[in-house]
Amino acid sequence: MPMQFDASEEDLKVWLAEADEQIELLQNDVIRLEKDYDDAQLVAGIFRAAHTLKGSSAMIGHARMAELTHAMESVFGAVRDGKLKPTSDIVDVILQGVDGLNAFRQEVVTKEQSDVDLTDTVNALHHIVEEVGGTFARMPGQPAPAAAEGPAAAPSAAPAVAGDGGILARLPLLDDEREAIKATVEAGIPVWLVEVNFKPDSEWLAVRSFQVLTDLSNIAELLKSQPTAEEVEAEKVNVQLMAVVAGSDADKIAQTVNSVEDVALSRVDAYLAAAFAQAPAAEAAKDLVPAASQAPVPESPKQLEPSATKTPVEVAARPPEKMAQNVRVDVERLDNLMNLVGELVIDRNRLQQIALQLETDLGVHDAIDALNEAAQHVGRITDELQEEVMRIRMQPIESVFNKFPRLVRDLARKLGKSVDFVIEGKETELDRSVIEKIDDPIIHLLRNAVDHGLEMPDERRAAGKSETGLIKLSAWHEENHIVIAVQDDGHGIDPEKLKASAVRKGIITQEVADRMDDRAAVELIFAAGFSTAAKTTDVSGRGVGMDIVRANIEKLSGFVTIETAVGRGTRFLVKLPLTLAIIRALLVGLGGQKFAIPMATVVETLRFEAQDVRTIKMHEAIQLRGRILPLVSLRELLRLPPLLYPAPELLLPAPSDHASGSNGSNGDGQEPEGDQSSGMEDMAFYLARPRRSHKMFVVAVRLGDRQMGLQVDSLIGETEIVIKPLSRFLGDVRGIAGVTILGDGQVAIIVDIPSLVNRVMQEQLLA
Amino acid sequence: MPKILVVDDAAFMRMRCSKLLTENGYDVVEAENGLDAIAKYKESKPDAVLLDITMPEMDGLTALKEIRKVDPEAKVAMVTAMGQQSMIMDAIKSGAKDFVVKPFQPDRVLAAVKKLVG
């Protein structure tokens, strides 16, 4: 069913942004209620969020949402007032409500009513409040409760008396009241009978009545009213109010009363001496409304006066607090801005190259100096601009972390485990581009920690641990990276069990397992198709294993490592770059084409003589400061045609054994490279895979704690690049993370190191 | 042009209210909580104030009292939600002239403001 909201599209955007903020606050903080229900600030914040949502959802006409938030607010109110202790069951109901809010919020986006029905939840919330003796204010649209019994149900049947409009007949006076009025009249002060009728649809009669009494007290002396001020404050009111006041004049009184909103009709009559004769009628009425009549007439309006007129010293002395000036910006605009800055970075690089080129070609010249200076200035400004924009895009990781307490809580409850979930460092900032993509891997790690990491309470007890397990999620900065750690104090990962399991599943052979050290064995958890849980639960799901988690993290140019101790727990460390938009990269050449290797993965660059290459266990490697660095050719990894030198005098076909000295990474069912270079053969190129006499360049790259040497044709230099995704026509190309435009206008291909290195590792493991 | 100070922590409400008032020939100053409201009141001396009750930093009732200390003649209408009837009575005790219940009718807001300013 389509829905319509009482707001323009633009307005709805603001509405949504704000609603999201409040819903998120509820999501994060409601869980904390179980433990911290006596934290006044926490409860006040939660109450306020529900309250704001109630107001704004009613404002756009989302009745179901308003009704739900109203019910939630009442529950929070009861908690705040100390009437209600939020048990896990109550929090469950509230969380249902929070989920409902998300659904209702979505309706505002889609303009379609979802089939989400929260009647039960709303009723349950009402029930929770009613149980502790709370009441609900009526929502607009809800049926009004049966007409409030109150003193105002005065008998209107009493005969009208000339001169007072029958007011006195309905406003019985006590003897002493009559005496007081008489004395006032005799003292020459005019006494007025005031009758006020409110509009029947007036929203809050009590407040309106209160306003009338307050305003009357401000200009005259209130001798009597019906209902009395106390009754009004107790909300015992009716559409009619009557009062006797002394002083002022009829016009002023009428004006005062009529200035109150929702007053439909009023009359002001002079209190005539003749009225004293009406005592019998008044007496008759008195019996019908004893409570009203005997209620004391309010004191002189002292306390009703504005607490005003003191000198404003207290306020003035406090310096006005500076409020942070914030502007909401559409995320899309920020992305655009980042893109533009990216373009500028490219142009800056280009400008600097042109200046350099001119200097090389033309020698020293004033104009070139000036250009250089300008280029440098532009460069500096661009750097600053880039930094600023980056800073704007930085967000605390909080927005991601905040989803997790609920996840962990629900999971633990489902599994019958008891978990203390601690979050540290949620203020740690990182770029939007990364934030958007990290929740999946973290969710998976957390699920694993609850499901597989922590033992059941009885197991924990048997092991001499506290029944409540601890899961800690923390984040911190380390150089240009953010590190996210998921830690549990569960049973840890047993390398022997992992090995046995991997052998059983055919992931490794017994022989490989036997010579595998513990560290490598633990890493097996990341092998494709591996899962240590004896059975798949609906918690950790099916299909998505740690291999996917690692792949996703590596897609973000990050890496994940494990530390574990049997019986004591496990810690997963995820290290990610702060941004994915602009990165530093090492440019290398393969033939005429330039490739960019993200600096985050580069350890060092090396130059070797080809004869230094060893073959160890069928794989090429070089010895570097006493350790072995496996060596692969980037050219071969990317399935590029082998290096060719034009050799027109040698009309030889490409030798088929060109890869004989290589690492055999092409033995995985891919087409042999010879086919890809078949076009070249016709052009009579001569294949020259670097042989023993060649110098070769190697880039040592790192992935987690594994390293590998990538052999390239040439090293070009380091630069900042802006990652442009590959066109959709190309889709996901393995081994290529994107492209970038260089300062000289050339396009460089960004190498996806994680996927390449993993492929090699996988192949070598299988070999 | 009469100047109205609109105080609400909810940006959406603020925007709605400001828009309505601006379209009807008022000059609008916004504040997002009680503390802010006091500062803005001193700074811009508005002709009337629309003051939300439930706000962080400083709630509307406290702000009302503070504003009335700064200016005993301050013309303030409370903006409120269902269920806050007793708070409004407190507000009226403290010198509020009127109130508007959320979700408000534009006519109702304009009438209230007109009355405050007039």
Describe the structure.
The complex is a heterodimer of chains A (767) and B (118). Chain A is α+β, with helices and mostly antiparallel strands. Chain A has five domains: 9-131, HPT domain (Four Helix Bundle (Hemerythrin (Met), subunit A), Up-down Bundle); 167-294, Alpha-Beta Plaits; 333-396, Helix Hairpins (Orthogonal Bundle), CATH 1.10.287; 398-493 and 532-577, Heat Shock Protein 90 (2-Layer Sandwich); 582-766, no CATH class. Chain A contains 27 helices and 24 strands. In chain A, the strands form six sheets. Chain A has a six-stranded mixed beta sheet with strand order 14-20-21-17-16-15. A five-stranded mixed beta sheet of chain A has the order 6-8-9-11-10, covered by helices on one side. In chain A, strand 12 (582-590) and strand 13 form a beta hairpin. In chain A, helix 3 runs antiparallel to helix 4 (88-110), helix 8 runs antiparallel to helix 10 (250-258) and helix 18 (432-453) packs antiparallel against helix 23. Chain A is elongated. With 118 residues, chain B is α/β, with parallel strands linked by helices. Chain B has a single domain, classed as Response regulator (Rossmann fold). Chain B has helices spanning 11-23, 34-44, 60-70, 85-93, 106-117; strands spanning 3-7, 27-31, 48-52, 76-80, 98-101. In chain B, helix 3 links the parallel strand 3 and strand 4. Chain B has a five-stranded parallel beta sheet, sandwiched between helices. Chain B is globular, with a radius of gyration of 12 Å. The mean pLDDT of chain B is 90. Chain B is built from five helices and five strands, in the order E-H-E-H-E-H-E-H-E-H. In chain B, helix 2 (34-44) packs parallel to helix 3. At the A-B interface, helix 1, helix 2, helix 3, helix 8 and helix 13 of A face helix 1, helix 2, helix 3, helix 4 and strand 5 of B.
